[in-house]
Amino acid sequence: MGRLDATAAQMKMALSRIVKKPDYRFGFKGQRLVACMLLLLTATTLHAHVGSPDVYYEGNAGPYHLFVTVRLPQVIPGVAEIQVRSQANDVRTIHIVPMRLTGPGSHLAPIPDEAQQSKADPQFFTGSLWLMEFGALKVRISADGSKGKGEISVPVPSFAQRSLPMEKSLQGLLGFLMLLLAVGLISIVGAAVREGNLERDESPTPSRVRRARVVMAITAILVVGMLYLGRAWWRVEASTYQRYINAFKPPAAETTLANGNRLFIRARRPDDQFVSSSYFLQQVSLEEVIPDHNHMMHLFLISVPGMDRMWHLHPERIEGGVFAQHLPAMPAGRYQVFADIVDKSGFPWTLVGNVDLPQVQGKQLADDDSSWQGMSLATPVQDSSVAQLPDGGRIVWQRSSGPIQANTPMHLTFRVEDQDGKLAQEIEPYMGMAGHAEVVSSDLSVFAHIHPAGSVSMAALELAHARSLTGSLAGQSGMSMTMHMLSHALPPEISFQYGFPHRGDYRIFVQIKRAGQVQTAVFDAHVM
After folding, report:
1. Residue 485 has what DSSP assignment?
2. What is the per-residue DSSP string for 260-327?
3. Above 80 in pLDDT, residue 125?
4. What CA–CA distance (Å, rounded) separates 345 from 460?
5. CA nearest 498: which of 463, 458, 448?
6. Average pLDDT over residues 494-510
7. CA nearest 456: which of 512, 497, 486?
8. Is residue 278 within 8 Å of residue 35, measured between CB atoms?
9. Quick one: which of 83, 54, 134 has its CA closest to 446?
10. What is the CATH code of the structural domain delimited by 3-158?
11. How far, CA to CA in Å, does 130 sit from each of 94, 325, 501?
């Protein structure tokens, strides 16, 4: 979603919400909640989950077409910022509420918050939600307007991104106050023993003074012991919280090549000693992933450093939770690995790694597998808006004339033209979607696999809608999975809702299916 002032304001808002809504139960033990709130003061920005943590979604809440942005907090518990834009001006109120995506609580909603409608732009609503736990959540959005009521649920992967040591100035101030309190406590105890029951104007006897000194010494020892134990407790809590953060970092993609053309992919944690000690911490099990676009894994191999080749493949799961892919013909070189999966709870993961491959004598691509080769990413990057297709057609990026701003929701809109420059007529669904796009930063710190519905996983979206509330609202709730998974001819224009997470150079791979062939167009962009 000065930093210290903003964070303190978030804490104040969150605490007020807890007091206001005692029925909000997103299970944390008391001391964990206190520790995590204190860690909120030490948060800083780190884009995790392969660099693009915010959620972008476009869909229908009944009769209302909405564009949703969820800006995740840096720490959990933390306050997420929700932005909703209605395509038309027929929405009067928007209510938002966080829930679990699956399991206990996925049907038990807290009291919803009303999003604030912008006075300058009546189609724009904003709100804040307190996310209290890690894992697969959803934000349920209810719209009410001139056409009645509608509802939609947006999957949200909730995870802490980073924590840092407290600022030295604040650390010094708190240390001084703690010392002042400790000295004050010792002095109060000594005064109570020395003068607590004396008459007015009566002086303490030498024995009282000696007794007070002994008690003050004992109190000092106890205070020092309490401070030592408190520091040890804090170190344990801070270490535990950091392990929570590590648990949701992208797992490593461990790859091995067999028989010269068969690639095996396994998930490996950087911390092999990590043991989940809490119900909301997850380990990636490749044996328990669920299909996304009818595939258990989407594997992307991108040549580095130039990013002049890209393969989008779909490995099969074999015994032992390992994924295997017979590679197509590929030149020797180093490739960056991004492997998208969704676990059974609906939490999306991207396995990240690299692999050095010899020249591979593989078979031709088939089914949904695809590839692209072209020019290396230039330095500095040259913005592009037209990309040629193998059949002589082209894709045109209908970008604005101004610079692209980081961390700003936008529509990436592309128009497909045939060899004669006319609008293409033979566009087919590609894995049930009008198109797919992969956004990769030049330093490989950002990878996002997006669709016309936004950055959400379709598998998680299906879980969100499968667990929508029953009744009339549920009958009107947003796009179902079958509505997302298209099966008919498509218009020649494709739009993706997304926001580039930070400044820098990016390469965008846009993939469509035309006349039975998967085609890839590539665009470069500099983000300010």
Report:
1. S
2. TTEEEEEEE-S-TT----STT-----GGGB--BTTBS-EEEEEETTT--EEEEE-PEEETTTEEEEE-
3. yes
4. 8
5. 448
6. 96
7. 497
8. no
9. 54
10. 2.60.40.10
11. 17, 42, 22
Range in 13-17, 53-57, 389-393 with the lowest mean pLDDT: 13-17
Question: Tell me, what amino acid is at 114?
Answer: E
- Report if pTM > 0.70: yes
Q: What is the DSSP letter of 263?
A: E
Q: Which two tokens stand for residue 46?
A: 């780190």
Q: Which residue type, as a one-letter code, is found at position 526?
A: H
C-alpha gyration radius of the chain? 28
Q: Find the helix or strand (DSSP H, E) in which 410 lies.
A: strand 410-417
What are the domain boundaries of the chain? 3-158, 168-247
**If you search the block for the tokens 């669709």, which residue do you land on?**
451
β-partners of residue 83 are 69, 126
Nearest to 247 by CA among 277, 273, 282: 282
Q: Flag the least confident range among 195-199, 293-297, 409-413, 509-513.
A: 195-199
Q: What is the per-residue pLDDT across 192-250, written as a single tens digit (0 to 9) for each?
A: 999 988 888 888 999 999 999 999 999 999 999 999 999 999 888 888 888 777 777 77
- pLDDT of 20-37, one tens digit each? 333 333 333 343 433 333
pLDDT mean over 37-62: 65
Position 43: which residue type? Answer: A
User: What amino acid is encoded at 372 in this protein?
Assistant: W
CA distance 492 to 389: 14
In what order do the strands lie in the sheet containing 135-145?
A: 113-114, 91-100, 135-145, 148-158
Q: How far apart are CA 110 and CA 131, in angstroms?
A: 12
